[in-house]
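hey m, so remember when u said the tokens were messed up on ur end? i reran from scratch. heres the input so u can diff it against urs
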Amino acid sequence: MVIALDAVLDADERWRIVDEQRVELADLLQSLTPGEWETRTACGDWRVRDVAAHLTLAPRFTLKDFARDMVRAMGGMNRLIHDTAVREARRPTAQIAANLRGLVGNRRLAPMTTPREPLIDILVHGQDIARCLGLRREMPPAAARDAADRVLTTNFPLRLWPRPRARLVATDIEWSWGEGEEVRAPIADLLMRLTERDPWPTAATGRG
């Protein structure tokens, strides 16, 4: 059944979802074994600990930090994101999980970002962690739609993914975007593909 959602999330609802997701993911992280923390994810060479560490950084990231780390990364945004996460991941796993839980209620943003970036991060990276461990993690459809809208409209320097050359149609909510060959899938699967995770789900129709 296709659901018609209410209007776009307002700021308070968006942050409520981010906090809810942070708590749930911190609970999951605290239940992991040492070996599970070292499991490779779909994020290149990032392990679970690197992904989790990345999620704790943005609220503590100042403009001065950004300038310093951009120089270290020789101007590459992807390299900056990668290197800061890997450095932060050297902390004990218990501290990484505690740092994520400690962000609940924190609305501070990294330079140049909006409240939708923390939402994208916690939704997508929460899936990265769960999927590599063979776990199922539900994604609120309204939040996935909000994140997908932001991914599709983000521009340089925050844009990290190519825009799709297809018409995307969600099968579980009323949402669509783009033109061309039609690709249909649940909104959570479309969000993951938009951020270059997983091939299009086998349940989807169209080639993408």
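this time it looks ok to me. Residues 89 and 149 are 30 Å apart (CA to CA). if urs says something different then somethings off w ur setup not the seq
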